[in-house]
Amino acid sequence: MSLPFKLPQQLPDFTLPAPLAKLGDRLPQLPPTLALVTGLNLGLGRLIPREPLEPLIGKRFLIRVTDAGMSMRFAYGARGFRPVFDSAPPDLTISARARDFIALLAREEDPDTLFFNRRLLMQGDTDLGLLVKNTLDGVDLPRFDPSRLTLSELLHRLRARLATSPGAV
Amino acid sequence: MASSFELVCPAGGLPALKTAVDHGADCVYTGFRDETNARNFTGLNFDDKSLKEGIAYAHQRGVKVLIALNTFPQSGNWPQWTAAVDKAAAFGVDAIILADAGLMEYAHRTHPQLRLHLSVQGSATNYEAINFYRERFNIQRAVLPRVLSMAQVEHVVKNTPVEIEVFGFGGLCVMVEGRCALSGYATGMSPNSYGACSPGKVVRYEETPTGMETRLNGILVDRFAKDERAGYPTLCKGRFEVDDATYYAIEEPASLNTLELLPDLLRIGIRAIKIEGRQRSPAYVGQVTKVWRAAMDAVKRDPDHFTIHPVWMTELNKISEGQSATLGAYNRPWK
Amino acid sequence: MKLTLGPLLFYWTRQQVMDFYAAMAEQPLDVVYLGEAVCSRRHEMRLDDWLEVATVLADAGKQVAFSTLPLIESESDLKWVRRLMDAARDDPRLIIEANEMGAIRQLAERGQPFVAGHTLNIYNSYTLQLLAEAGATRWVFPPEIGRSALAGLQKEKPAIETEVFAHGRLPLAYSARCFTARRYRLQKDSCEFRCLDFPEGLLLKTREGMPFLTLNGIQTMSARVYHLERELPGLAANVELIRLSPQPAQMDELIAAYRGLLDGVAAPMPAGDYCNGFWYEKPGLDWVTA
User: What is the pTM of this model?
Assistant: First the structure.
């Protein structure tokens, strides 16, 4: 299930078609949430340092990909990120379109720019958002390649990881 | 002199520093991860390891690293600031940027070889003040608050041996820096002592039926209609009521862009242009540095025929706060 | 402990100013600060007018200080400050309150003693020591920091008097722009001196109607009035002077109330929308009662 096209060097501005948001809304939200927390956990302690994230312990997050109708609820604990299944109010909600989330991950867009343009909304505990943003901005990594951010890639890495450290997630 | 017309770029972390270096900065300015600098935002700034790595990366490529220690220590926490000065000196930074006179005296006495810059937080708007710091602490450079007109800046340059650095682009303080207690009045945390204006822990954004509301410690700063461009949650950029009018009572959420003034700034002898934005991401740093490098190279090559590339403006407007870019105080439409 | 009257921060007509200080000469004040301490465009009072007021006050037994502009933008601003310095040098009953480092450089050069104003950001004893060496004989504690900062400063204080801003709208920020002119869509250089219409500044409210700030030309102040009444007994042991900031009404009652607190004679304190948060290292607009 890799992307059927190669992403260009700079992301064009796009919005997923409206019916997709309605459809996405009705789909189970667990698989994308699992993929996200798995990806985050893979980075923890390696790319993403644990120590600055300590204030996030016990906090609940909601990421809303508005044009995909996707709502990913997860929490951070001493053992890493995990999906949450109830609808208790999150401490921090971040909403944007799929295109803008990808551009942020690729460091092509500056979150403040998206905020000024009303394309990124952060609700709840703003300081948690700043912490996440600044911690990710501080990660010194080779240029991110969004074409590697695919479900099959993540599942593959998850399987490899589970094989070596049972119960790690 | 043209060769020392430096581009000074912000870095809130190692990736931003590398991005600035890679895109043509002459100097990168940084801060430690605490209240010793005026961008003390959660998760931002450098720990010892990343600063050392950043200095090595910059120095290998002939780029200078400056560190801002530009808040005002109190008697109780004084050792934290002097330790930061000592550490900066030990790490081999090219200059430290200070605001507090007492701390400047300490740095000058303890590290006489260390280059000192007077921070914009030092609120020095005239040559007498700048010369005071020169005579007492041998400062090499002063960063001017964003309140002077071009003629006034030129007058300062002519009357001091200290190199003058001005802000060229980015967020715009309309208040004299170092003399603004608005954030402290509303939140208890101010740039002078806490190191941040409107820190995240007291900021709340809320979607309401009438628009997105921005609150600072519960105080309504602004309410944005759908698709209206938003600004930072700082009090000076909010909409308030005065004598029955509701408007941006202090300043619109606009940012500074002085690209068109570059030939004048070079002519009057400005030695460095500062880009604001240590709180911004590496993406911002890369975009701004690229444009300003190109523009500064162009003006140095041929100051008489400098023209602004439309693409530069498009790029810069895209990442600016608020609806518009302004020339700030350099040109005074409000005067 | 001495009672001082800070510089007039609002813009009043020449007659209002003259009348105000004529009344103040009769009041139990120890020190009075004069001069324009906000905007260099305010010229109702000429230097001669200020000198006349200074003479009346000095003859009434008050020490008189001339405050300098906290924001210097041009050579003419510097010239004004130099004229004040010359006047103070020629009259031993006058002293300068310096409100930015440029004035201090010149005062130190002239060997002229001075008061270090609250806009100088004296946050620690090292900075204070340095200013004392430059000639400061008194300093004013910056109102945006609180009691623990003052305690720290007092511990290692050089031989210098300490003054605390105890009552008045808080001066919070200065700009090159004029927010009073902005409200009436006027350019700063043709502001029609609209500040004259607002003897206590212009109230700024949030869109929810909460009184928040006061616009006073290029200065932004608090809407609430800083008020250290309850803290006065503690202050008396540690500081030499407390400052009241001029206001257009009830100044006599206010002076009587503070004077009464200092002398142990009860006098009613005028009611007001007060704050004291800065003193307790809380948001400045808070009112701490505990």
Answer: 0.92
A22 domain-assigned: yes
ipTM: 0.97
pLDDT mean over A80-86? 89
Q: Which architecture characterizes domain B2-172+254-326 according to CATH?
A: Alpha-Beta Barrel (3.20)
Mean pLDDT of C72-91: 95
Confidence at residue B331, expressed as pLDDT on a 0 to 100 scale:
73
Which of residues B47 and B329 earns the better pLDDT score?
B47
User: Given C100, C129, C283, which is nearest B129 (Cβ)?
Assistant: C100
Asked if B16 and A136 touch (Cβ cutoff 8 Å), the reply is: no
CA–CA gap between residue B124 and residue B104 (Å, rounded): 14
Q: Which residues have CB under 8 Å from A6's CB, separation 6+?
A: A147
- The residues spanned by each domain of chain B are 2-172+254-326, 198-248
Q: Which of A94, A116, A119 to mutate to test the interface with B (most CBs of B within 10 A)?
A: A116
C215 pairs with which residues across the strands?
A: C202, C220
- Residue C208 maps to a domain: no
Answer with the residue of higher pLDDT: B120 or A24. Answer: B120
As a whole number of angstroms, the distance between CA B206 and CA A113 comes to: 18
Closest to B249 (Cβ–Cβ): which among C77, C210, C215?
A: C215
Q: Has residue A71 been placed in a domain?
A: yes
Chain B residues whose C-beta is within 8 A of a chain A C-beta are: 12-16, 18, 41-44, 50, 53, 199-201, 203-207, 212, 224, 226-232, 253, 279-284, 287, 318-322
Size of interface B-C (CB pairs under 8 A): 217
